[in-house]
C-alpha cells in the first residue's frame, strides 16, 4: 500500500467578507420585516463575518462549481499543472443542479483533459468522503495523485425570494406569514466558499502532511432526519421527498430550502459525535496525547463549550491549547470547512515536523461523522 500525502492546500472565498449587519441586505428581507430569529441565531453562533457569492446588486457572482474550480486553480502552480490531475473528487451539500454531478461540472470548468471524477453526496461529510476516495485511490495504487475538494454555495438557497411564494400562500390563507424557525435557522448560519487539497504518493512541497487513516460512522439506523432540503419532515419523523409532492406546492412549502430540526440537533449532535470519536481513537489506539492539533468542524460557537464538556464527560477531554477553529471569520462552509481550516493552519506557520492533526467532522443531516488523522512530515 502506498503512503498518501497532502502536498498542497488552497481555498477560495468569494467577494468581500459580509458582516452581521450586512447579512439581511445581501440575502433579502422576507415579507418586508427584519428577522427576529437572525439576532437570536447570531448571538449564539458568534460568527462575525462570512462570504457570499453575491455582488452588491444581489446578483450571483459564482456558482458552486466555479467556486470549486477557483480553489483547485490555487493548487495548479509552482510545478503542478491542472493537466497533471489524475483524479478529481468533489464533495458538497449544495450542488448547482440535481444532474450532472458536481464533480462533472467542476471538471467542465477546468477543461484539463480526460480524468476520473467522483461526486459523493451528503452534507458536511461529503467533503471528507471526497477526501477519503482520493486517499484510497492513491493508497491502493490506482492513481499517483488526486485533487479533493469541499465546497458550498448556499447563499442562493437562503435568499428571500426562495421563501416569498410560501409567505404569499400563507397570506392568501389568512395565516400568520412567518417562517418556521427550522427554515430560518440556517439562513443565518451558512457561508459560501471552497477548499482543495492535492494528494500525492510522495511527500512533496514545503509542508507535506501524511494521511495516516480515515474513519466514518453513521447513526441513521437509530436517529431520524435532522437537516434536510428537497423534502418535508412528517409528524412520524419520516421525510417525504419533493418528487412525491405536486409541482404546484414546491414553492408554497419552500421544499427546496435547507431546514434544521433544532431540537433533534441539540439532543444528539455532540453525544454521537464524541461516541464516534472514541470508536475511531480506540480502533487506531490513540489518545489525546497523540494529538497536537484538534480541528473540529462546528456550526456554531454555541457548541464549542458544550463539545468540550461532552468530551470530558465521556473521558476524552481535549485541552483547549490543541483546538484550531476559524468559524468566527469565515462562517460555516459545510463540506468545505475542514479544507479551509487546514489551509489556514498550514499557512499560519505553526506546524512543525512530527505534529499530529485530528479532523472531526459531524454531519447533522442524519448524524454521520468522519475522521482523519494526519502527521506533518
Automatic annotation (TrEMBL):
Xref: InterPro entries: ACP_syn_III_C (IPR013747), Ketoacyl_synth_N (IPR014030), Thiolase-like (IPR016039)
Any Pfam family: ketoacyl-synt
Domain (Beta-ketoacyl synthase-like N-terminal): residue spans on this chain: 120-202
GO molecular function: acyltransferase activity
SUPFAM superfamilies per the UniProt record, alphabetical: Thiolase-like
Biological process (GO), any one: secondary metabolite biosynthetic process
Annotated keywords: Acyltransferase, Transferase
Keyword Transferase among UniProt keywords: yes
Domain Beta-ketoacyl-[acyl-carrier-protein] synthase III C-terminal: 282-359
PANTHER family in the cross-refs: 3-OXOACYL-[ACYL-CARRIER-PROTEIN] SYNTHASE 3 (PTHR34069), BETA-KETOACYL-[ACYL-CARRIER-PROTEIN] SYNTHASE III (PTHR34069:SF2)
Protein name: 3-oxoacyl-[acyl-carrier-protein] synthase-3
Amino acid at each position: 500500500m502506498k503512503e498518501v500525502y497532502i502536498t498542497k492546500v488552497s481555498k477560495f472565498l468569494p467577494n468581500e467578507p459580509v458582516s452581521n449587519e450586512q447579512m439581511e441586505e445581501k440575502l433579502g428581507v422576507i415579507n418586508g420585516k427584519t428577522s427576529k430569529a437572525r439576532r437570536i441565531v447570531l448571538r449564539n453562533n458568534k460568527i462575525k463575518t462570512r462570504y457570499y457569492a453575491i455582488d452588491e446588486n444581489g446578483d450571483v457572482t459564482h456558482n458552486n462549481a466555479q467556486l470549486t474550480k477557483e480553489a483547485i486553480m490555487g493548487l495548479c502552480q509552482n510545478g503542478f499543472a491542472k493537466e497533471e490531475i489524475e483524479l478529481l473528487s468533489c464533495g458538497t451539500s449544495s450542488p448547482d443542479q440535481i444532474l450532472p454531478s458536481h464533480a462533472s461540472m467542476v471538471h467542465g470548468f477546468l477543461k484539463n483533459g480526460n480524468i476520473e471524477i467522483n461526486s459523493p453526496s451528503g452534507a458536511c461529510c461529503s467533503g471528507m468522503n471526497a477526501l477519503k476516495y482520493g486517499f484510497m485511490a492513491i493508497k491502493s495504487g490506482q492513481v499517483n495523485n488526486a485533487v479533493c475538494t469541499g465546497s458550498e454555495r448556499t447563499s442562493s438557497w437562503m435568499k428571500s425570494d426562495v421563501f416569498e411564494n410560501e409567505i404569499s400562500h400563507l397570506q392568501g390563507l389568512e395565516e400568520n406569514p412567518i417562517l418556521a424557525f427550522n427554515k430560518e435557522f440556517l439562513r443565518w448560519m451558512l457561508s459560501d466558499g471552497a477548499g482543495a487539497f492535492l494528494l500525492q504518493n510522495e511527500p512533496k512541497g514545503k509542508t507535506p502532511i501524511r494521511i495516516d487513516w480515515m474513519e466514518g460512522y453513521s447513526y441513521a439506523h437509530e436517529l431520524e432526519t435532522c437537516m434536510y432540503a428537497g423534502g418535508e419532515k412528517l409528524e412520524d419523523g419520516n421525510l417525504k421527498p419533493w418528487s412525491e409532492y405536486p409541482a404546484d406546492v414546491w414553492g408554497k412549502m419552500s421544499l427546496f430550502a435547507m431546514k434544521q430540526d433544532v431540537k433533534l440537533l441539540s439532543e444528539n449532535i455532540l453525544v454521537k459525535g464524541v461516541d464516534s470519536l472514541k470508536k475511531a481513537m480506540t480502533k487506531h489506539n490513540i489518545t489525546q496525547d497523540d494529538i497536537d492539533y484538534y480541528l473540529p468542524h462546528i456550526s456554531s460557537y454555541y457548541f464549542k463549550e458544550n463539545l468540550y464538556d461532552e468530551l470530558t464527560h465521556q473521558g476524552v477531554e481535549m485541552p483547549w491549547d490543541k483546538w484550531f477553529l476559524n468559524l468566527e471569520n469565515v462562517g460555516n462552509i459545510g463540506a468545505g470547512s475542514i479544507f479551509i481550516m487546514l489551509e489556514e493552519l498550514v499557512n499560519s506557520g505553526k506546524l512543525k515536523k512530527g505534529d499530529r492533526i485530528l479532523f472531526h467532522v459531524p454531519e447533522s443531516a442524519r448524524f454521520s461523522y468522519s475522521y482523519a488523522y494526519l502527521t506533518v512530515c
